[in-house]
Amino acid sequence: MKNTNHKYLCWLAGIRGIGRAKKYALLRAAGETSLFNIFFSVGAAAFGQDPGLAARLLYTAPEKELRFLWGEAGANAQGSREGWQALLQARRQDPDRVVEELAHAGISFIGAPEEGFPQKLKEIPDPPFGIYYKGSMPSGEEPAAAVIGARLASGYGREQARRFGRRIGARGIAVISGMARGIDGIAQKAALDAGGKSYAVLGCGVDICYPEENRELYERLQQQGGVLSEYPPGMQPIARLFPPRNRIISGLADLVLVIEARKRSGTLITVDMALEQGREVYALPGRVSDALSDGCNRLIRQGAGPATCPEDILEYFFGTGSGENEARERNVEKAAAKAPGQGRGSVADQPETVMDQTDICRQMIDKQNAGQQGDGTPECAASGPLDQRILRLLSTEDEKHIERILEEIKEISLSAPPAESADTEDPVSLPGLVSCLMRLKIDGKVEESSAGYYRKI
């Protein structure tokens, strides 16, 4: 529960026209001046115990004393006259009304000097004056990873964002990002889908969903994490507000993972801030011919950790081998749930990599073509229902990973109405899917653009 002076910090934080540095300076000046003792009859040490007292002095002091405090905080700074007028104008507001309006909008506020403000943010070079949030604030105890990347991501980047976001979220690591289109939003959604937590730091007020296309994610974040901003409610998304918010994304995280980034990318601004804050940086390797991987490959050359799989990130948080063992156990349990009665030595429940699984499937297909059924999985009939579903899921513009194709086909099968059951009861397994993909590839309908990734021709 906030104390009675918290409302004055809310009031000070909401003043537009005064930067966070000047607000910090005003609080320091108010806390150190003898006026503090005169007005409140308490020692200056009370400022440290209740910073809201200093903000209260800024609100209640006569204009002559307030001007003195303004001068102590740096009256000759650029834009000082406009800031002074903004402060005088703000003193006409009722702090109680400010708090009521925030509560009515479902918005909370916590000031940097207050107890409960994230310690990670207090320690960065340029901490925010305070944070507005809907939902909850990140806990100081929970591990957190920032997942960032290109807005116009490739199919490879989007698939890897899902893969990393899902595994990180499932292991209890909070995903921090900017809720932007592309890598940010995809990774955050994947973390939520896995039952994890995620927090979005916006470049506008928390009462504004930007981009609007991420409305569903915006609502879900408030239930399984939070939406945060240092900007007051009503602040519109302006280009110049986004680079400063990036320091909060990296500041809240223990590690920053870059999925895709061009050589000259706004994503790399966040990386620079992360390095300044002493955060670990990992990057997803990409093909040297892909412009969207230029930034990541360069980061790796400069010393960033290569994130070849989610276990690389889990290893950082939980130690060598722990993430890998966890993944192995989860794969075994998942296989057992999908195919009861299968032994641990069957193909379906082995924790091989996707490439290993693909090789095994190809071997099984060779056996099938030779008249030897490897595990009883029927061959994919030419131009059958599964072929048509695969072609509907693929596009000529974006490549899609084989695991993702399998997931989407199963989702279609589960959601199909009874009338379509005849089209959805054929077995859907990884060997069967690979068989169909290879047939479509031979027929010239799909291409394997990279290992395990397919697109329609």
Number of domains: 3
Summarize the amount of helix as a percent range: 40-55%
Broad shape: elongated
Strand proportion? 5-15%
CATH architecture of the largest domain: 3-Layer(aba) Sandwich
Describe what this molecule looks like in 3D.
This protein is of the alpha/beta class and about 450 residues long. It has three domains: about 100 residues, no CATH class; about 180 residues, Rossmann fold (3-Layer(aba) Sandwich), CATH 3.40.50.450; about 100 residues, Orthogonal Bundle (Arc Repressor Mutant, subunit A), CATH 1.10.10. The strands form two sheets. It has a nine-stranded mixed beta sheet, sandwiched between helices. Strands 10-12-11 form a three-stranded antiparallel beta sheet. Helix 16 crosses helix 17. The termini are far apart. About 15% of the residues have low confidence.
